[in-house]
Specification:
Length: about 60
């Protein structure tokens, strides 16, 4: 949400009311839940977990059988 409220983003800090902020945050959270559910249906690991496992294991994680 930093991109929405700070100066290097949309700079909406102090320009919108609390209800609009809460509504936007809930909408953003709902979208994250939907995208996450679809991603986890198709893949065993999320993108950050895959990156961390690749770095720590020095190679791509093996798929589950």
């Amino acid at each position: 949400m930093a991109l929405v409220f700070t100066g290097y983003g949309a700079a909406l800090y102090g320009r919108v009311g609390a209800a609009a902020v809460l509504g936007g945050a809930l909408l953003f959270y709902g979208c994250q839940l939907l995208v996450s559910a679809r991603l986890m249906e198709r893949h065993r690991l999320g993108p950050v977990e895959r990156l961390l496992r690749t770095v720590t294991l020095w190679g791509r994680p093996t798929p589950r059988a």
